[in-house]
Fold these 3 entries.
Entry 1:
Amino acid sequence: MSETVDKTATPVTTTDDEKKRMRDRVEALLKLPPSVSTGSVSIGKKALSYAVSASFVPVVANMSDTHKGEADAALFLTSYTQHIKGVPLDAAARPLLFAFNGGPGSSSIWLHLGALGPKRLVIPDDGSMPPPPYAVQDNPHTWLEHFDLVFIDPPHTGYSLTASDAARKKMLSVDGDVEALAECIRAYLTRAKRWGSPIYLAGESYGTTRGAALADKLLDLGIALAGVILVSCAMDIQSLDFEGKNDLAYGLFVPGFAATAQYHGKLNGPQAKSGAAARSAAEEFVTTEYLTALHLGARLPTARRKQIAQRLSELIGLPTQLVLDNDLRVSDATFFSELLRDEGKIVGRLESRVTGPLGAKKSRAWDFDPGLEALLGPYTMAANAYFQSALGVASDQKYAVFSEIAHKEWNWLQGESKGNSYTSTSNSLARALRRNPHLRVLVASGYYDLGTPYSASDWSLARLDLTPEVMARITHHYYEAGHMMYTRTGDLLKLKADLKSWLQA
């Protein structure tokens, strides 16, 4: 799951009593015994048995000179290990996948209960919110068929917590987050005696930002990955941000706007025939005309400006005058609130097929994402029920599906982004691919994702500093839904099939 970038971290003051409570809470979590159970799921005609363990892993990061060796954080992990008649499969040969979501500030519940795990929350194929009650059911398309699975909740998501102000400040940052998860993965491999397994990562949204950096960081720890799976890419934040004079995002979002406008019946002419026709026309317009027009700015002749505005209007379903009034630059927020204004609706960001009602005043403020709201409540309730009732997790604290603390305090200006206002970890992925000749990458993008549009992912991958021979180890697939494309049954099946083909290649 992806949220709007806020580069200003909110300072937090903590009293001595609060500091002690932070430390005590982490120590209490680490003393909890793992919640262990077994289960079975049918995949076709085959019954797959597994053991599941929900537990906390200590992360020590030596935050200061006064550090006494205590854990700086307790990270919550849910692991699934395939069994045959109660006996684990050979760990030396069995691949192991570590999975996480993004935000930053999101727990791993979306990939966990949306697509990868042996249990799944079913969402209507159109992305709309299902009625209650919300409960998981067997997932016959679980990735447990191919890997043992470990879902990691980063600091201050899920049940995971840090033990001090210093730890929280460091781990709620681009670099600190990567260091914490790298240490968590190293610790798990040692505890579970899985150093002999082929290791994979799967990240979604900001989890791809994290995953790209981890691919390189883990090599520094001697952990050579077999593969990285990037769902809804966000490696280069510049491609997603409409801030300031960044014209890049305006061009990269147009194909997604066009597909969305076609889906909602707002186009005419050849581009109205299908989503594919709308995307193709938009892609050609962006590369042959639109980017040049944006580059020229005020130097663009008036007649040509009107031509560009009219063509953009035809492609994205907004009035020509509105495009002109916005200086040919239509932001995501403008598109969300204007496309269906005549119908009294706003358009979703993470799932643009989904709409929500405008208020009676028909304000132009886009104050909620109907694509996200359709999922947040159901996933939150299903996750809490699953962890507490099915898995028996003993913690009485809130399971943070999405953490406001992590989101508000996040420090974006780290690592490769120093000296630049935009976080970028694509260089880390490129370096990892050059360092590790066996590393392969699978990328998944939804056509109706207006949080991390498919065309922005295309751009990011095309900008990797790689030779054609190394680029050949990257595979990119596309899907007919949004950010969490796996909520649509057809895309869930396609994603699993694409994964299988990628693994067999």
Note: The longest helix spans residues 275-296.
Entry 2:
Amino acid sequence: MKNNRKHFQTLDALRFFAFFKVFLFHIPIYGFPALSFIKEGGGTAVTFFFALSGFLITYIILEEKKATGTFHIQAFYIRRVLRIWPLYFIMVSFAFITPVVLNVLSMTSSADGYEPNWLLSVSFLENYKMIATNSFPNVSPLGVMWSVCVEEHFYILWALSLYFIPARGLPWLIACSIILANISRYVFYLHDWAFLDLLTNIDYFAYGAIPAWLLIDRKEQASGFFSSLPAVLKITTLIAGIGVIIIIPNINFEWMVLIEPTVLGLIYLVLLALIVFEEELFHIPQKNVFSRLGVYTYGFYLTHTIVINFFVKIFDKKSMAFESTAIAVLFIAACLLGTTIAGIVTYYCIEKPFLKLKKRFN
């Protein structure tokens, strides 16, 4: 069967921007107010990845069901395995080998966090260990893999749900997911548990699924609505949405953790809808440097904490309270360049050979 799926080029650039915020969040530099303000809330960027996955996975499934009248769930899962598992398991192996190598080289390793359990790590259950211990694994890059675990759990649940639920039932699934997420977060909040599981994050995926449903099932109505809006309003909305995403992690009050997800989810919904239905206005072409870098985002995400920790040792400081702006910029540039090289190498050496196999399961 010919693959008629549309490639949304602008989303590649958005992936890179989201990664870059996560990257800045993990940069251990303090003492620069502007940088601290921008890099606050790395988890915000991760939740955008969730919304993006919700959009893309829902679009893929609905497009296939509309074109063929069915959904080949086995092929879907195989494609997801080929996309996620190879690099994931390489990074898990790296994490468990690292302490052994450091010990042989008589180098110190981090004492912060818990000793990881290999069975939980390879089973995509690292996030539940983090919730149970209210801590994080003491070796990179396991600390950022909680989001990959959540993504894997989403693929299983969402694909099964859409396999049995017709397209007209998707709005009910989305509504139930949003309600369930808010209830789950309230329960977790009462127990002081971190929001690191699927239930407390499933509404992000659901908000992302809405533009996909509109694109497949309500395309004419949605296109007509967005085309009727003035361009200045759409541009202003996009800019305001990005501004709120940057500002909201810096707002602190007691109930903010329960309010923030809904605000962000709605913003993600609007931003994705604008980009999908107003491609000419908000188009970032594939040749753009950010779109090109976006292709390597998965590798960037899984390797960036390793690279940052490496340069922390090179600069011989654990917490970079630099007085010199030049040295701070040099450290960030070195980490970004190292991450870029690591992400590109892992893409071509590990990811791409498996990605080529995905074509067999379209």
Note: The mean pLDDT is 90.
Entry 3:
Amino acid sequence: MNKQQIIEASKILFDHKLNKTGLDNLNHLEPKNLDDAYKIQDELKIHYLSLKNNICIGKKIGCTSKAAQNQMNVTEPFYGNLYSKYSSQNVEKLNSKYFFEPFAEPEISFRIKDDIDISKAPYSLDNIKNLLDGILCSVEIVDFRFQKPLADIGAINLVSTNGASDYWIYNNKVYKIDEIDLTDFEVSFFIDNKLQEKGNTNNVLDNPLNAVLWLINTLCKKGRTNVKTSIYIIRFMHKSL
């Protein structure tokens, strides 16, 4: 894709985001590979940052289970951006009219301790915990934007639409990294006090820290240095709203 096509695709996706509408496809502007998809996502980020009082506060990670990767026909996760305008702390209610087709996903989120030195990459699990200073409970609202089944949308289109990330709700309590056994931690998801789903952190590449490690090394490889205080969120399951 050339630069003009990337800009045009990002504008279409941003307009649909603001109007809370879906679309069938991007036609000739649909990305054909991950490189183009991330270029559209980067251009989409410029539109997001043009909004008043909005900054990028972190990253989301999608496709972090083998089952999800098999469904989407990919061999690794993908990422998107989190924004201050589309996040809140401890909110109890969100009106579905502000979304197109929302799904709620319980998440484990990680907070970065300091700037990450990309010259020391690639990092390993032996030093990953030194890069993090806390874990938060959170819920991500995803909005797939395209009006077709997830498997038909495909990972490339999801990447171009900011990883389908639309809103992020986080708890104010920050747990220490060693306070939770991430190799075997059960996550329960309730809506209106009714249990909807159960999941376990070991479904996330055996341990969510593996997903964080993938993201940090991926961003370092791309030369991204703006990761200070970023929040990386890990998906377990999703439930339509």
Note: The first helix runs from residue 3 to 19.
